[in-house]
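Lab notebook: predicted structure, single chain.

Context: the supervisor wants predicted structures on file for every construct in the current expression panel, including those that have not yet been purified. This is the next one on the list. No modifications to the sequence; it matches the entry in the shared construct table.
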Amino acid sequence: MGRLLYGSDGQSLDIDDRALAHLRVVFMNKLRRAEPFLFHHSEPNGSRSLWIHPAVPIVFHFYGSRQPALNRAWVEHLMTAASGPHGLSVLPEPAQPQAHGATGEDPPA
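Prediction complete. Output recorded below exactly as produced.
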């Protein structure tokens, strides 16, 4: 479980390391382009929405010792959500397309 720390007042959200790694890519891409966006996070006791802006400090704290492999489809799905009118939420991870020949089977004819 990782933690997202946002703002000087110490807003913190606990997020799974794998999801946090994908969110970090989205946040950094949006912030690098100076594109603020709304981020929603559901919690057991409700939910929070944060306005993510380049001028606000942000820290991604990972508790795991390994960097999770990134799912490109998930990053693209999250980027689309972040650019949409409802903002970004942690969406379920889509299945990664299997590489040709990865199963050891011949492709269908």
